[in-house]
Amino acid sequence: MKLLGVFAVTPVLCAAFQDLGGKYGGMDWLTPAYTFWPLMLAPVGFLIVFVTYREFTFNSPRGTYLNQTIRAVCYLFLFLTAIALLYSWLAVISVLICLSILVAGPILRKRAAA
User: Fold this and answer.
1) Where residue 59 falls among pLDDT bands split at 50, 70, 90?
2) Distance between CA 68 and CA 84 in Å, rounded?
3) Alpha-carbon distance 67 to 42, whole Å?
4) Is the pTM of this model over 0.70?
């Protein structure tokens, strides 16, 4: 859960730092890329957590919280990376990763139950 939290909070902190530093700090080097790249890389971290802890997620009673958390964060980042498509077409990869996690979760859960 801590690793998932790091991947989810880092883009938010980068966005806040870019907004405050660029507006009030006079830091012109803080471009929108400072916000969008961590936002596009976060779903890769979600995929790593999803694949690494898949046995724990689908076979234990405590794992359902991890599964629900990953799904909730993927829904949020699906929306945010869709907005990032306006910045770069590479955000398509992040959108596809979020969609694959959301689709693969119920499929793997059915297989684990059988």
Assistant:
1) low
2) 24
3) 17
4) yes
